Amino acid sequence: MSAPLFDALLRLGDDRLVLGHRTSEWCGHAPILEEDIALANIALDHIGQANLLLQYAGAVEGGGRDQDALAYFRDAIEYRNALICELPRGDFAVTIARHFFHGLYSVLQWEALSNSQDATIAGIAAKALKESRYHVRHAGEWVIRLGDGTDESHARAQAAVHLLWPYTGELFLQPVDESALVAAGLTADVSTLEGAWRATVDDVLHRATLTAPDGVWMQRGGRAGRHTEHLGHLLAEMQIVARSHPGAQW
Amino acid sequence: MSTTPSVAEDPARYAQFEARIAADQSIEPKDWMPERYRSQLVRMMSQHAHSEVVGMLPEGNWITRAPSLRRKMILLAKVQDEAGHGLYIYCGTETLGVDRQELVQQLLDGKAKYSSIFNYPTLTWADIGAIGWLVDGAAIVNQTMLAKASYGPYARAMVRICKEENFHKRQGYEIMTTLARGTAAQKAMAQDALNRWWWPSLMMFGPHDSASSNSDELMKWGIKRKSNDELRQRFINLTIAQVKAIDLTVPDPDLRYDDATGNWIAGPIDWDEFWRVVKGNGPCNSERIGARRSAHAEGRWVRDAAVAFAEKQRSNNRETAERQQ
After folding, report:
1. Residues 26..85 of B with a Cβ closer than 8 Å to A: which?
2. Contacting residues of B for A140, CB less than 8 Å apart
3. Min CA distance, B3 vs chain A (Å)?
4. Would you identify the CATH topology of the domain A2-244?
5. With CB atoms counted within 10 Å of each terminal CB, which end of chain B scores lower, N or C?
6. Is B107 an 8 Å CB contact of chain A?
7. Closest listed residue to residue B200, CA positions, set B82, B119, B113
8. How far apart are the C-alpha atoms of A47 and A42, rounded to whole Å?
9. What residues does each domain of chain B span?
């Protein structure tokens, strides 16, 4: 089961690494100083989660790759993050809506994984759950504030929901090769999380006077390494120093 | 500087104030203080807060390119600390009756200064090491002194901030140590960063005592306890040993050890460069202020939304309360 488990850990780790990278792009550019602190903190949580997940992925793979080898020396087609994580930073509304959508997905995922039969996964999930709950509280409050704030913030928040919505479906596609892991209680079936996710999303969007679009085509591909054009640029930036000095210690 | 205006405000209270300073008692927000003391503190503390905020930019420039996940996490934590320091010191200035928005506006309008060191560019990963080691190192020397400042809230802020700055300095020196012991390219990167950051770091302590217009007054009132040149000398002495330990060299052919005083004596500082950068013509002055301005302008709709939402909540709460009466 090591190959499917490795893939499952990459899906978990790559989501957080790529989203953490995008969030870190805000550093020094947030709308208020309090948000510089909050976004740096959220980015740090994500990178920290990715660090643990990729470290474990490397151990499971057993090929001598550590978390840095996996983060810095894989190409875009080898990345397994959901597309929503790699979309450009966008304005503050896009950042907040993405954190809300993905954060809520993460809370549900960590809740399930904290009961994993794999002690390492359960441990990472328990730690990450606390962090993701904070991310959702932070993002959810902002979704409501922006949606029910001014005409401009409402329009921007609604545009962000429309932009991101087609990328939310992919989060709940359960990979076929993970079924044995789910059956063994090691990982969670993400398709079972969608109902709870949607209920909370609808509630918050309603309070924010926002609406979710109906019947849009859901994009997919990230879990299979078929990414948007954005990921290559993101990785080029992330990996440039490490790849310029192969074998170097930092 | 003449002290006459301060004395004239209230001679009796002024005498009391001076006696408290002389007795090393801290001045607290509720205490009477001369207007000039207050304005000097606002100037210093807001410059310090602005420096923390602008200082996020040169380091933020490397978060997305940090060469390992561990380094990325440490750098993110460091930059987050700096935002926290900025917020903390802005709050400190509010104890002196100044609104944070007013101070931020002064920065955006180019009326307020911040540490000139952040007007230099971060060109390689080694610059992140050099900044942590030298810039935070210099800041610690300065802030350790300010932790004994006569104004209580500022002194207490410095105690807390210095603890975190020590961690920043350690991680910077650790980066430089790793690079200096790494591949030839890494060592060259470390030496180049030291070459570029050494002199600007020495300039962080400000002009020579003979040319420092504010120093006398700040020292008289116990805001500063040591002169610019004394602090600079302390920094040089501390740092040269660290430079030697990792087998790098400072870009100063005149550097010499003085047996009589036990000091490392640096060659002449290029004060023309110092004043050029202070006056706005450093390599990154316009970029740094430009980045702050655009963040502020692009964030306006977010701040407006927060205000509008809070107002709606208040008015909803009022209506609910009225219905219940």
Report:
1. 53, 56-57, 60, 63-73, 76-77, 79-80, 83-84
2. none
3. 37
4. Ferritin (1.20.1260)
5. C
6. no
7. B119
8. 9
9. 4-275, 284-325
Pick B76's closest partner by Cβ from A43, A156, A248: A43
- The two structure tokens encoding residue B167: 């961690």
CA–CA distance, A15 with A39 (Å, rounded to integer): 17
For A207-244, write each residue's pLDDT tens digit: 999 999 999 999 999 999 999 999 999 999 999 999 99
C-alpha separations of B297 from A154, A156, B55, B107 in Å:
18, 16, 19, 13
Quote the minimal CA–CA distance from B208 to chain A in Å.
32
Instruction: Please tell me the pTM assigned to this model.
Output: 0.95
Cβ(B100)–Cβ(A74) under 8 Å? no
Instruction: Look at the domain B4-275 and name its fold.
Output: Ferritin (1.20.1260)
- Among A37, A148, A245, the residue with its CB nearest the CB of B80 is A37
CB contact under 8 A, B53 and A37: no
Rounded to a whole number, what is the largest CA-CA distance in chain B?
Answer: 83
- Could you read off the pLDDT of B81-137 as tens digits, one per residue? 999 999 999 999 999 999 999 999 999 999 999 999 999 999 999 999 999 999 999
Please tell me the distance from the alpha carbon of residue A202 to that of residue B74, in angstroms, as a whole number.
Answer: 37
Q: Scan for tokens 């050890």, then name that residue.
A: B257
Q: Between the CA atoms of A240, A241, A246 and A248, what dihedral angle is there, to the nearest 10 degrees? A: -170
Q: Answer yes or no: do A248 and B125 touch at CB < 8 A.
A: no
Show Cβ contacts of residue B43 under 8 Å, excluding neighbours closer than 6 positions: none
Angstrom distance (rounded) from CA B64 to CA A24? 7
